[in-house]
Design brief:
Blueprint: H1 14-25, H2 31-35, H3 41-66, H4 74-82, H5 84-114, H6 120-127, H7 130-148, H8 152-183, H9 206-210, H10 212-215, H11 232-261, H12 272-283, H13 290-310, H14 312-324, H15 339-354, H16 362-394, H17 410-429, H18 442-466
Length: 505
Amino acid sequence: MANSTKSTAFKLSVMTLAIMNVAAVVSLRGLPAEATYGLSSAFYYLFAAIVFLIPTALVAAELAAMFSSKQGGVFRWVGEAMGTRTGFLAIFLQWVESTIWYPTVLTFGAVAIAFIGMNEVHDMGLASNKLYTLIVVLAIYWIATFISLKGLGWVGKVSKIGAMVGTIIPAGLLIVFGIIYISTGGQNQMDMSQSFFPDLSKFDNLVLASSIFLFYAGMEMMGVHVMDVKNPGKNYPKAIFIGALITVLIFVLGTFALGLVIPAKDISLTQSLLVGFDNYLHYLHLTWATPVIAIALAFGVLAGVLTWVAGPSKGIFTVGRSGYLPPFFQKTNKLGVQKNILYVQGGVVTLLGLLFVVMPSVQSFYQILSQLTVLLYLIMYMLMFASAIVLRYKMPKEQRPFRIGKGGNGLLWFVGGLGFCGSLLAFILSFVKPGSIAGISNGMWFGVLIIGAAIVVATPFVIYAMRKPSWKDPAAQIEPFHWETPAKPDAQVAPVPEGDAPAAK
């Protein structure tokens, strides 16, 4: 996304930034996937936090502060290190990943709306109906798109309310319900014989666990606020660790809360969060609240999708105006919103939604698209981690208001290397077909993931090769890269990879 990190008079407190981190990252839709692992789910959450969540936040903070006055986000970060071609790949992956992600999260929203009714059997049947799910997925998405076309004012209002009502409050209630349930004699449905440490010999079961990395995705967006914190070198890491701790606690305790009331064999990736709430409300004799919870969760989905509809599309639009996308994709409405990109994005989401017709079940569709988004997003993250390390050597004298390690590059190598290796591990595991997914052949699983990922990765390179001087908008404000500006005395600037330097001309 467009990077606008600038120091302002107003400074965020440590706790405010920590809560902002939580709001940006936490989503409840993925809890059922990990609830099937019982006690060992805590291991996966902690492992992913250590090797991915914290490294992502710290590396993004250094890069955001380093280029606080320059637009481009991950395009800038990766482009400065590896050239504009690779930078364009990074921003393109961020945009396309979010586009493919919409049907998966909206499937969860459709299930939430199905439980607004008071007839449990009817609600569960409706939630499993592919035609109903398709209609609701497209309806919510296009509502979010039309709100985005109204400008950031509308997006900000809906997103702020939705994050609190649809994510943070329900997460707290789920954990409180679990505590009340188990302390008042409720029957524990979780298999307590499982160990905290998982059986790593069961390789095929690790694929769902690898998707936990995407649960933590989005923390890099908070890097743009690094300069809005007083004494960022000390307080930003503190906010990151507090936010990460709260995030992990919500995920761990929320997952346990689901596992307490739903046997692992009955857990559904798309329905179990609502079923879990419904079971708790029956136990507490508060069945009237089931539709209220369902509406809140559906509103939270709308708010989350709205944030992402308005975000990555704005990033690719900003970069595209500098000559990386044809003029058609640079058109805006009278409010300056990237209308054509939003319409094309909507067409892709609609097409993906229609795949419900050919997929064996809603759950299989949900899982295979989720895995594809994991693959694409992890490629972007690996580029980001590698770029942070490369820039320490290409731009060693560049000011870094926030720096990982006071002196030398050793700590960055450790943090960035940990994040890169963790992302690579999750990337590899994402190709393994989980045994819990029925109705999809191995050929279809690998075909969709490999061919889908290959097409997406190849597309920005094709667009880059076809670009023309006429594509550049004279009003575009992407600042030159470091190799395009006159070298300062004693500056140590490494040459850009061959073939990339002319891109911004």
